[in-house]
Amino acid sequence: MKRLALILALIASPLWAVQPDEVLDDPALEARARALSEGLRCLVCRNENIDASNAQLARDLRLLVRERLVAGDTDEEAISFIVDRYGEYVLLNPPASGSTWVLWLAGPAMLLLGGGIAAVYIRRRGRATPEDDQLTDAEEARLRDILNG
């Protein structure tokens, strides 16, 4: 049973997405590349980082990160290069600045809007008087005619 659990864990492991030919010889650079890859979104898989994705574009991004690190870029320079090329959408956790303010504020704004609509609805519903629900004399006569048939 332990063997089966181990086999399933190895198969399901996201480490298998990184191919052996992508791994850098320098362990320090490889560790930096892995750390950077965890914060980059696979543009095909949406909310999966490029380290866990088997998509070809994710592989290209992993190789690009490693190329930039081997070329001597700092972590910030490598991320900046990729963001310049693919846009802020490639970041799994984009900074709250510029155009991303709309994204950061949309959730709370929709929550407040929904709460306001619910409050207005409940308030109006509470103000309804029983007189509004009563039938007019003509409606009562028509209802009697229908029921007596």
UniProtKB/TrEMBL annotation:
GO terms for cellular component: plasma membrane. It comes from the Bacteria. InterPro entries: C-type_cytochrome_biogenesis (IPR051263), CcmH/CycL/Ccl2/NrfF_N (IPR005616), CcmH/CycL/NrfF/Ccl2_sf (IPR038297). GO terms for molecular function: metal ion binding. GO terms for biological process: cytochrome complex assembly. The chain crosses the membrane at residues 101-122. Residues 1-17 form the signal peptide. Residues 6-147 form the CcmH/CycL/Ccl2/NrfF N-terminal domain. Keywords: Cytochrome c-type biogenesis, Heme, Iron, Membrane, Metal-binding, Signal, Transmembrane, Transmembrane helix. Belongs to the CcmH/CycL/Ccl2/NrfF family. PANTHER family: CYTOCHROME C-TYPE BIOGENESIS PROTEIN CCMH (PTHR47870). Possible subunit of a heme lyase. This is Cytochrome c-type biogenesis protein. It comes from Roseovarius nanhaiticus.
